[in-house]
Amino acid sequence: MPAVSKGDGMRGLAVFISDIRNCKSKEAEIKRINKELANIRSKFKGDKALDGYSKKKYVCKLLFIFLLGHDIDFGHMEAVNLLSSNKYTEKQIGYLFISVLVNSNSELIRLINNAIKNDLSSRNPTFMCLALHCIANVGSREMAEAFAGEIPRILVAGDTMDSVKQSAALCLLRLYKTSPDLVLMGEWTSRVVHLLNDQHMGVVTAAISLITCLSQKNPDEFKTCVSLAVSRLSRIVSSASTDLQDYTYYFVPAPWLSCKLLRLLQCYPPPEDGAVKGRLVECLETILNKAQEPPKSKKVQHSNAKNAILFEAISLIIHYDSEPNLLVRACNQLGQFLQHRETNLRYLALESMCTLASSEFSHEAVKTHIETVINALKTERDVSVRQRAADLLYAMCDRSNAKQIVAEMLSYLETADYSIREEMVLKVAILAEKYAVDYSWYVDTILNLIRIAGDYVSEEVWYRVIQIVINRDDVQGYAAKTVFEALQAPACHENMVKVGGYILGEFGNLIAGDPRSSPLVQFNLLHSKFHLCSVPTRALLLSAYIKFINLFPETKSTIQEVLRSDSQIRNSDVELQQRAVEYLKLSSIASTDVLATVLEEMPPFPERESSILAKLKKKKGPGAVSVNELEEGKREGGELNGGGERGGDNSAIATSNASTPSPSADLLGLRAGPPVTAAAPSAGSLLVDVFSEAGVNDDGFLRDLEPPTESSDSLLAEGPGDSDSAPPSVVSEDPAPPLPESNELLNKFVCKNNGVLFENQLLQIGIKSEYRQNLGRMYLFYGNKTSVQFVTFSTTVTCPGELQSQLNVQSKPVEPLIEGGAQVQQVINIECLTDFSDAPLLNIKFRYGGALQNLTLKLPVTINKFFQPTEMASHDFFQRWKQLSLPQQEAQKIFKANHAMDTEVLKAKLLGLGMALLENVDPNPENFVCAGVIQTKAQQVGSLLRLEPKRASSDVPINRAQQ
Amino acid sequence: MIKFLLMVNKQGQTRLSKYYEQVELGKRAALEADVVRGCLARRKEECSFVEYKDYKLVYRQYAALLIVVGVTENENELSIYELVHNFVEVLDKYFSRVSELDIMFNLDKVHIILDEMILNGHIVETNKNRILAPLLALDKMTES
């Protein structure tokens, strides 16, 4: 190597750099720089034409100043002049300056383009590379226009030097990214793919980046790259450590190239061709085997390079998710790394295992490492590694280990770093909810969570525990007792006071029998926290007090006294004051009956997806929570809420509340019970505290939760099954045919009444519905996801064919204008006249940015919505069952279960169907039997259902009889 | 994909920065300060990968010089970690025992080397001899 002189002859530059280095303070540095800038400016403006050397020197100084973090607003022209120099060094500095300092919309681009054009046609490979690097770095539209035709030619020409090919490949990639419309690959495709076969490894390395990007965009056109990549990989993997000479890095043959090849393969599904697949599996096995061989060098570089390939191979194995053998081997390999002394490896192993945990083939294998991972959570000294361990625990959690994992996470929370506490809290809350079979465990867990990390418990978490306690009457007594005990602690978190106030206000009576938690004791306990709390909590507590007056008349005088005190009734906070005044008045003038009606126990919450999951997802950004997980969460969430919501029950409460003659009912925001959207958001009494909050947020939840992927593609622009059909502007005014997946969307709602019916990039349609007898009411929420308004928004509901005589559907008109980000609501009334099998169609038309959008969906109205559950004893059931023996009265279907059968999930689904689930009726406890009456205007049809899951074969025969 | 590469000394002064996606000048200084603070605060036994906003940082320290590479989430960390080492080895080979001063006084050459190795955020060349070839050709030209 030549000894390199400092500054390489540019003495002025070296002096300047030394000066800067010697500056004692930032001010001195700025002063020196300003002096230099003035000097350079005067030189550039001077009359005397500068020679190439001086120009280069000054441009170089400017570059240096820029890199010190100072803006440079001149010298561009001089740099462009340097481009046309014949001296390589001058040209190079010119290009460097432009790459670093010129942005893609500069006015100089045309001049630069000229210089580039000259260099590209110079046939001098060094000049060509410089020019190509410049295009790759700047990559403006004008450059694409000028060179998009030229570069593919350079890339595939037989006589192009290797180094030029490399630059050309990356250059083309840049142009393709910035202006894909200008880069027409058609004729070059196959020749570009064949660069994978190039004998020069550098060319292959560069070309893969281009091919990977192109494959992601046009997988079909580039799919021949799979077999080429496999054979290239196979040659590298099987080569001896010295075969590849300069491309061998610490005895590892071409590590970076191998990683890139493995990454390219991750753009495609497993190869269909058996031979190719066999070869690839062989490669992957070899890579896994090599990990077990003794290292060829003790240097860390050797093992790092080897492991880089190994991790990429494991990513590919996980991506394929089809080779159980490889998945389990990968898991074992990662298991070894979990205990490796290199922190980097432990970190990567935890991260990689997280994705393995979601594969059905390796989930069990991952679970075997639970002790190691828990240990990592406890002992790792690096917070980012601990974070990964927590992620992995979350990913490997299932019903079998939930209690252990939640316990460990809780105990870790006591000492966890502040940076990850909030996320940990959300995760614990989600796991506790998802895998709660035993609701007292769930309540314990959440209260512990509040106790340990109260500050990090977001509103969603404590709303959720209240929703669940309200909906599950088997846990209410326990919850009251536990929260009462938790409140005994001298210092307890405000969130605990909120939960305590709410739960005791609702269910304090369940523990009032015990003299240790008599009504007055409960009240005094709550009130002892009052002065420590913030205004919203105090407001909630006041509402709890008025509920106490209803629950326990003996507390009335004590509580009235509290309400009457100056600190309440003259409180400077208007909300608190108003509550104190109103509650005091209510308690003194309303009769016990009225009081009891107004302050009735909260009705169950409608089924909704866990808001916590949405929050976690938002926090971590897309990708952190997989769609699978979300879907699972939805399913399990539904189960927790006690299955399908009983719309009938709810609306019964609503009507009874609404018809209460007391004028004070309005004060409490009870004008309307469910549907929650109608609850007055401002009144903010206890009765609506959580409810109205939930009601308001609910739509937010719906919006936050991404729907499963199948519905998230842009469907508007695409005709049914035809990706390159007409653009939206020429969509006809006739109602579009129903979306191809509308049946699937419909099926999602068979067992539930609320959720997201449809979503694309523009529009989200949420749905809430309730049914009673043969009547139904559906609320559709049309959310504009864009920032642009939708105009001439209109919807029509039609009943095709004979459905017209079976179903009577009336829709209220909807606002014709939806502002960006806004949501409008539409009410649809449904009357079932007689039995039916089709679903009504909902057509939606609106203009978005001038283009007509037209789509048709099926409204999720199915016959089972009109079920009324019927309880009956075993004897009655089988008697009726036997009576229904005519062929037309019976239908039987045997089908394979799509998911693992979980009793709780099945129960929830059956309840969602709307029939009564009859316990202790069938002699075989594995079987489920249900009974219900379908209510139509014309007739009532009794129905019996029997579900016989066969676990071994996972077939589920269903017997269904109709009367 | 590689988003940026920084060479910073222990005092937090940037000696070289190369961005592979447009970052406003005003934001660069803040980003660099943030990144460097984050990496320098870490102890030796902590792992070399840090999550930072949408990026993942891969860093490696050589004496007083810290090299930090910001990559996208899906990039292979170990391969970037070794890429940094390969880069340093190339610098070492060219400058024969590279120091912070060499980088300061020969910024243009370090950029040439980097451009030979990484283009557009992607690895183009890993072979040391080929990385140095254009630079050596250049030196020959100036000598003669």
UniProtKB/TrEMBL annotation, chain A:
Keywords for this protein: Cell membrane, Coated pit, Endocytosis, Membrane, Protein transport, Transport
UniProt membrane topology term: Peripheral membrane protein
SMART domains for the chain: Alpha_adaptinC2
A molecular function GO annotation: clathrin adaptor activity
One Pfam family linked to the record: Alpha_adaptin_C
All residue ranges annotated as the Clathrin adaptor alpha/beta/gamma-adaptin appendage Ig-like subdomain domain in the record: 747-860
Top-level taxon: Eukaryota
One Gene Ontology term from the biological process aspect of the record: intracellular protein transport
Amino acids binding a 1,2-diacyl-sn-glycero-3-phospho-(1D-myo-inositol-3,4,5-trisphosphate): R11, G12, K43, Y53, K57, Y58, V59, C60, K61
Any one of the GO CC terms: AP-2 adaptor complex
Locations listed in the record: Cell membrane; Membrane, Coated pit
Biased segments, Low complexity type: 650-665
UniProt main location, coarse: membrane
The keyword Cell membrane appears for this protein: yes
Region Disordered: start-end pairs: 623-670, 699-739
Assembly mode: Adaptor protein complex 2 (AP-2) is a heterotetramer composed of two large adaptins (alpha-type subunit AP2A1 or AP2A2 and beta-type subunit AP2B1), a medium adaptin (mu-type subunit AP2M1) and a small adaptin (sigma-type subunit AP2S1).
Role of this protein: Component of the adaptor protein complex 2 (AP-2). Adaptor protein complexes function in protein transport via transport vesicles in different membrane traffic pathways. Adaptor protein complexes are vesicle coat components and appear to be involved in cargo selection and vesicle formation. AP-2 is involved in clathrin-dependent endocytosis in which cargo proteins are incorporated into vesicles surrounded by clathrin (clathrin-coated vesicles, CCVs) which are destined for fusion with the early endosome.
Similarity-based family: Belongs to the adaptor complexes large subunit family.
Name the UniProt record assigns to this protein: AP-2 complex subunit alpha
Organism name: Carassius auratus
TrEMBL record, chain B:
Source organism, top-level taxon: Eukaryota
Keywords: Membrane, Protein transport, Transport
Gene3D superfamilies named among the record's database cross-references: 3.30.450.60
AP complex mu/sigma subunit domain segment(s): 1-141
Entry membrane topology: Peripheral membrane protein
Subcellular location, record wording: Endomembrane system
UniProt keyword annotation of Transport present: yes
GO (cellular component) term, any one: endomembrane system
BP-aspect Gene Ontology terms: intracellular protein transport
Job description of the protein: Component of the adaptor protein complex 4 (AP-4). Adaptor protein complexes are vesicle coat components involved both in vesicle formation and cargo selection. They control the vesicular transport of proteins in different trafficking pathways. AP-4 forms a non clathrin-associated coat on vesicles departing the trans-Golgi network (TGN) and may be involved in the targeting of proteins from the trans-Golgi network (TGN) to the endosomal-lysosomal system.
Family, similarity comment: Belongs to the adaptor complexes small subunit family.
Subunit relationships: Adaptor protein complex 4 (AP-4) is a heterotetramer composed of two large adaptins (epsilon-type subunit AP4E1 and beta-type subunit AP4B1), a medium adaptin (mu-type subunit AP4M1) and a small adaptin (sigma-type AP4S1).
UniProt name for this protein: AP complex subunit sigma
Organism: Carassius auratus (Goldfish)
